[in-house]
């Protein structure tokens, strides 16, 4: 059991036409949708490493981010 990776379920809604395109793309590569998405997301993250902020950078960046994405934050808060 030591060598097993922790697994987290990811659930999201997407447009039906995008879902169909993903299914077709996965099928064309002889993969499940799950395996196709994991491979695609992993590749993107490896090629475009996320930038992690230290505590001070986070404190400076958060107010700008919240102002820039105010409508999104209000929408999320109202759910």
Blueprint of the fold:
Blueprint: H1 16-28, H2 33-47, H3 55-68, H4 70-77
Helix pairs in contact: 1-2
Question: How would you portray this structure in words?
Answer:
The chain is mainly alpha-helical and 79 residues long. It has one domain (16-77). Helices cover 63% and strands 0% of the residues. It contains four helices and no strands. It has helices at residues 16-28, 33-47, 55-68, 70-77. Helix 1 (16-28) crosses helix 2. The mean pLDDT is 90.
Main features:
63% helix, mainly alpha
Number of helices: 4
Give a short account of the largest sheet. Answer: none
The radius of gyration computed from the alpha-carbon positions, rounded to a whole number of angstroms, is 18 Å
Number of DSSP-assigned strands: 0
CA distance, first residue to last residue? 38 Å
Secondary-structure element pattern, one letter each: HHHH
Overall form? extended
Number of domains: 1
Helix content: 55-70%
**Residues in β-strands, percent:** under 5%
Global mean pLDDT: 90
What are the low-pLDDT stretches, counting only 5+ consecutive residues below 50? none
Q: Helix/strand-derived class?
A: mainly alpha
């Amino acid at each position: 059991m030591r060598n097993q990776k922790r697994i987290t379920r990811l659930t999201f809604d997407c447009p039906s036409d995008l879902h169909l395109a993903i299914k077709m793309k996965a099928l064309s590569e002889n993969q499940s949708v799950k395996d196709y998405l994991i491979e695609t997301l992993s590749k993107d993250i490896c090629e475009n490493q996320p930038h992690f902020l230290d505590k001070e950078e986070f404190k400076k960046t958060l107010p700008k981010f919240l102002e820039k994405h105010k409508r999104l934050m209000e929408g999320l808060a109202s759910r």
